[in-house]
């Protein structure tokens, strides 16, 4: 039997993205956090264009200009946020530092996420021995503090290949170290949601259709487990930036010639009580605002991507 | 005097942009010891009605207007402490999922004893004796062993019995049972329904049974209210409603049951589905699905009129009743 | 008589309850020994499904009816027994060998809110199996096919780019049915497809299933606990209890003269509109979990007519005069 045109049924509700978007616009804090994050990204991308000085210019570092206070104190209109101990314009250094910190953070988390998602999917979907093996690996990884692994690894690398080699490769090594130590977080989250999704009947329906395990894993299950990943993603970027800053603070991160926010803070810290507070405080404030914005964004995503909160 | 009377109750949901009406002008009464049923499909507002009787609707829902009177006490104007006194002691609730009410980390006995002792001052030993007696009343075998077990050690039917026992502890006047047997198997369902019926009869407790299953309702309730999209559309004695439904929705609901058609034939379906809160149609809420809908139905909300022993909110029935009355007059 | 479409013989399935390898070791009488606990979901089920008929399987929670459906569809591997499709054995096939039968046999699931992938549009949901099983079709042909398919289950083709959450439960169940029909099967297993739906919507979906059966000569294995639906829809009914079929009868015979004590209790328990006075037969206790493989009759613990033989000997399915078959010693001996 065929139905006549007027009997055909149309869907009843609006699209899901509309729902999320309207919820987003309603939440002023989330909008503010997003604006701040986008601002940071833009600044990081456009650092060479917006920075008042070119950091690669040999004339950039001039000890005559060292430790000039921000312009609203020193009334020196050349340096808006003052200069550091080497006479570098603090604003330019912070812009480049943000760029570096964000790059390290995002790249490291991309590595974490890729590894974690693949391992978590396999563990959750295949189950049994594979699951046991992969999850024990994750447990072992988690039982080492990632800071400790990073410190040991970086220290060994420095003593093996020398400081010069390290300074060249610092960024890549930092990305790898931070990226490789934190994958279990993603793997566990993904595994937990895969286990929940696997029970659902649409997976059975796909199996009844004869669709291959690989396709079921990546095409059917993965998209449904991505919302928690998005949340961890934002929070982990913040964590990775903090980890990088901490390592730099301990002298194991970026070299002073290519300062990230962390190494700027570390460097400025020694001048803190010598009266030049701005060298430490301004980069710290920049970092704190970035991390806060990322965490706010992550929290908001957690609340709104949770399928229990929007009516299915 | 009526034990409970609800009149012109309106319950709204306050959303960000709009107010959604969940219950519209709901009125009914309940006498002492009477058993009534509220029937409707999901989304009809029957559970919301159950919750609002004890003023238990959670935000964003709130009672906009109307009154709920228990004897002569107005429930809508009570503060939280007075309400808590009413809940449990005068009006008790049973839910579909017993685990909603049972705490999984406490033993059955502890929960029962705690309920008694929070309302009356007696020793643990006395409370235990009362609890075991009530467990015995709901036909739980070896109540002494069950007393020390945790909820997860019991089967679904057994848990629902425990809930009924806990409801009986404080001798309430009214039990509101929200789909009490939906999660159970048919054989267990039959037992629980019989138990509920026996308990209401023996103790003179009034029952408000909320259900989607007309079969269940016909076993228990004396009077039935049919709800559709927040309105009560028909009210009358259960037998009357089942054998001679007046409202087109009630008719459709009954006709859609498989036993109303010869085996193998297509069933009589009602087209479409219940409108959601956001898209209530104008006029009579049922008109888009009604086979008899006229232009008047699209614009005006029919009022409740008496037709025989039932009351119906439908223009079709209203016209018929009026015709009848006119004819009567002409005959005279 | 022609070969039945599906033939199930001696089907057994047990699930191990302590899955982890470490959990299986325990001390018994001072010795460390490995020990597996298992739940016996199916204990030797024999059924046949003929072309064009609807076989309803009825039973309470835990009687193994869903496991039966999953075993037939190859979603779980049975522990013992055979399943035949026409004359080919299908229970031991691997995924590649099973591919042909995937097109012939399809399934509709219980929960319309979980059986459609929430991140795939209706179009994607339907086009995936079509493109997968009929790779020779062009995109336009697939589009056409989806359009006719949607129209045939009463869903507007213009909504094919909508996601499942935009539809109501009844509409989703139609889409589920459309997905099952998309590969043109001749046998559909429906696992409680109506239990999550409202009464008025149940009728819509059931009508659709009746229409499709008439249109395509489909055979259904319809699993349900709603006996009113069974009475209306089934050709034959199998009553299951604790993993065994205890009565198998044509619908009319089953409802007019139920024989097995369990069937009688089950039928008397349905709340019916027409008989408000009939008292349900009370059974003792509740359905036990089948940890041990039963030796005697599965229903012995709750049966009012059980005697010593019921505890010791498994009753056989015996054909009765009205073409129903019952597995009960009491009936065989003429005690009831």
Features:
heterotrimer, A: 312 residues, mainly alpha, MetI-like fold, C: alpha/beta, eight-stranded mixed β-sheet, 14 strands, Peptide ABC transporter ATP-binding protein (chain C)
Tell me about this structure:
The complex is a heterotrimer of chains A (312), B (332) and C (336). Chain A is an all-alpha fold. Chain A has twelve helices and no strands. Chain A has helices spanning 16-26, 28-45, 47-50, 71-74, 90-126, 128-143, 146-181, 183-198, 201-208, 213-249, 261-269, 278-305. Chain B has twelve helices and twelve strands. Chain B has helices at residues 46-53, 80-86, 108-119, 124-137, 143-147, 156-168, 186-203, 214-220, 238-243, 248-255, 295-299, 315-331, and strands spanning 4-14, 19-30, 35-39, 61-70, 73-74, 91-94, 174-178, 206-211, 223-228, 231-237, 305-307, 310-312. In chain B, strands 6-7-8-3-9-10-12-11 form an eight-stranded mixed β-sheet, sandwiched between helices. Chain B has a four-stranded antiparallel β-sheet with strand order 2-1-4-5, covered by helices on one side. In chain B, strand 7 (174-178), helix 7 (186-203) and strand 8 form a beta-alpha-beta unit. In chain B, helix 3 (108-119) packs across helix 4, helix 4 packs across helix 6 (156-168) and helix 6 runs parallel beside helix 7 (186-203). The two termini of chain B are 37 Å apart. Chain C has 336 residues and is an alpha/beta fold. Chain C is built from eleven helices and 14 strands. Chain C has an eight-stranded mixed β-sheet with strand order 8-9-10-5-11-12-14-13, with helices on both faces. Chain B binds chain C through residues 41-42, 155, 157-158, 185-191, 193-194, 212-216, 218-219, 239, 242, 252-254, 256-259, 261, 263-264, 266-271, 273-274, and chain C through 60-61, 168, 170-171, 198-204, 206-207, 210-211, 225, 227-229, 231-233, 251-252, 265-266, 268-274, 276, 280, 282-283, 286-287. Chain A: It comes from Marinomonas ushuaiensis DSM 15871.
